[in-house]
Amino acid sequence: MIARVIESASPRALALLAVVTAALLIAPYLVDSYVLSVLIIVLYFAYVGQAWNLMLGFAGQLSLGHALFVSLGAYTSAALFIKFGVPPVIGIFAAIAMAVVAGCLIGYLGFRFSIRGVYFALLTIAFAEFTGIIVDHISWLGASSGLFLPVKNQQSNDLLNLRGSPTMFYYVILALTGFAFALCSWLLNSKLGLYWQAIREDQEAAEASGVPLFRYKMIAVAISSGLTGIGGVWYAFYYNNLFPETMFKTSQSVEIILGSVVGGVGTLFGPILGAFVLTPLGEILTAATDGMHLDGVKSFFWGFCVAAIVLFRPQGLWPWIYDVLGLAPKKEGKR
Asked: What class does CATH assign to 2-324?
């Protein structure tokens, strides 16, 4: 996977990638606990942003309900751990299965009945909302009171049970982000990725060329939802509490989307860059307005950022930075 990226990248791009990777690897030893917590959140959104980008940026299928897959992964792994003592390293497979089943159900209904564009996006929102209502009434999952994981000593790290220090969680989400990047890079440059891009650009032309639309759109939904479900497992064991009124909300899906929109939908580095831009700025804004009772200021800021990107950099920040820094290979202009 990584080899193909290295072969197609310019020396300048590889040097930048090496510097960023090295900085991320040593970051926990150079920053304080607050900055580390911000970096953890940044990497989480970089990871789930890549999963979402695979569905829209690669295959052209807009989802505004990815909070559903995060929540299913989180609730499944957390419930198995709390009720039956199943460690997340095993529960993750059930979490992936739940997320993929939900994604495939949405995809089947949408694609079989030719629901496209904004109507498909509304379908994803509807599934997230009514699933949240159902969970809100299941006492076994804590209902509206929430589901809580036991918090143990954070001085010792237990990867199998995902119990440990913030530094451990940092490296876990960093590994997941790297894995998602490598997987997306491989998929984008594979035959499957070419089919997705053909569907994204013109579904009718792709179908006329013999591309089986239903099959390849379903594959995109399944992979995207499964990856997002993995993010949900990490989320549950990092935050240790789950509430249906927050987990399944559309605002959770919007947070997943924003990084990709700002960084560049359909690019490999866009979701990562967007997460590193938006999340720290949001944290700075929250700290600056603390005590001012400015409800919704972060949402306003995000809306302003998206509007600015749409007006001035509609392709996102990454394609612009890519050109400004001269990261394209001399013979090939691939991103």
From this structure: mainly alpha
